[in-house]
Specification:
Blueprint (H helix, E strand, L loop, with lengths): L6 E11 L24 E7 L5 H9 L3 H10 L4 E9 L2 E8 L6 E12 L4 E13 L2 E9 L7 H12 L16 E7 L9 H9 L3 H5 L3 H8 L39 E7 L2 H8 L9 E10 L11 E9 L8 E6 L9 E6 L3
Parallel strand pairs: 1-2, 7-8
Antiparallel strand pairs: 1-11, 2-4, 3-4, 5-6, 6-7, 8-9, 10-11, 12-13
Length: 350
Amino acid sequence: MSTVTPRNSPLHLVTWNVGTASPPPDVTSLLQLNSVSPTTDMYVIGLQEVNSKITNFLSDLAFDDPWSIFFMTVLSPLGYIKLSSVRMQGLLLLIFVKHVHLPFIRDIHTHYTRTGLYGYWGNKGGVSIRMSLFGHMICFMNCHLPAHIENTEQRLDDFEKILEMQFEGENVPSPLDHEVLFWFGDLNFRIADYGIHFVRESINNKRFSLLWEKDQLNMAKKNEPFLKEFKEGPLQFKPTYKFDLYSEVYDTSEKKRKPAWTDRILWKVKNLSEVASKEGEFPEEENLISVTLNNYVSHMSYGISDHKPVTGTFKLEMKPLVSDPLVTLNPEGEWSAEHDVLIRYSAVPD
């Protein structure tokens, strides 16, 4: 029996509520472009509150929006290709991959779910991209859930509704059917019970663990069955909302919003016993795919909006189920920039 070497795919995921601002001059640190760690195979970028005034939105339907162009300009010289994107008003999800992986990615589908104004308005909701990566089904879901401290139930209801959406195609219809599901965005969960002075004092003294217990998402994960299998790294960074623009100072406006970890990245790996019971036997290899979080941080230096961006750097370790590309390309003769070039290709029969 031939053994297949597991693949390690570094994945860098960004979530950022950009507050209708234009892209910043530089995203080197946000995308970890100057780090000595292994080169990232895939960038997943989820933005909320991208400028969606009607004139912007109509021009963005005809052309790529400024944020997509901006990230393409940064990443394409480094060998990345925009694999897919999906936009719903202010919600934007972009995926870039190293071009060497393209032959092993298929079944790409996008979807969006409106939850604003009882499902008629797309200012809140979720946008999703799913794909088969080396034969493994993976889904990415960027959400913007309702604001304000009292709306926890509404946030949970909306997320349940987003989880119920159906992709086209029969093999993996809903987000929870995927082997790995990443859930991220401006989830808008707040810190309950404590007053603003206690919260700010705890932040100043880096006593974050006091605030974790009253974080609405952490509390919901203990009580809501559909959230229990979602994992998250430790919140060892300051709450990412709400800041005065171009500063590291929490809200000094009249509203004086209480700081909160609104911007989050979670993931869920499908339970192998579920897979086994459906198929009637346990897979030979215990873990066909595993997800390891290497780094979960906020980026305080970015000040274009009242939220700070958050990134998660992951290692996806998987046993490739697909190792032959659908199409093989071969150059014909000598190639040079001045002339048209020829390529020979062969495709698998189906």
